[in-house]
């Protein structure tokens, strides 16, 4: 996957026009789809992609050998693979996993012109953010390497007055936040999602509404997130 310069692509506008009428989200299978996050009405972008067997095998070994693994680090854009090699467990398939994670880091730093990325990689046995919410930041990248992906709501299916304390102590299912269970969307395993938050300029109150999926007994998820450092 090649990363297309965000400024160049947004200025051309020809690519983004293909997605008009899709509401607040865009889905594609090419890295250039990620630049659609710069479009004003878009607050969620999904890059669909498969994971190699080696990457999936490494994630399973990580779960087996480090079931409580939790990495937080600021990664410089210049030598990300070297930093990752020193931070990740030396298990079979490590090089393939580092290559894949480095690709995501390079796309994220290129897209937002960053010197450093705040990286978090976790093995999870519970939902970290079980309620639908909006992030109070610029734009977060999330990718689930193993397990169920992030759940989200389209703008047309969410009553934002029911977020946070507006739920009046009721669950997401009971509060009227969304009309019915079929409204809940879910990102595929391996896909990359960009979630525009309230911290994005001009986007206050309009961030992507999302939550972590419920985790079944004995289920493990391997999730990576990236933020502006």
From TrEMBL:
This is Succinylglutamate desuccinylase.
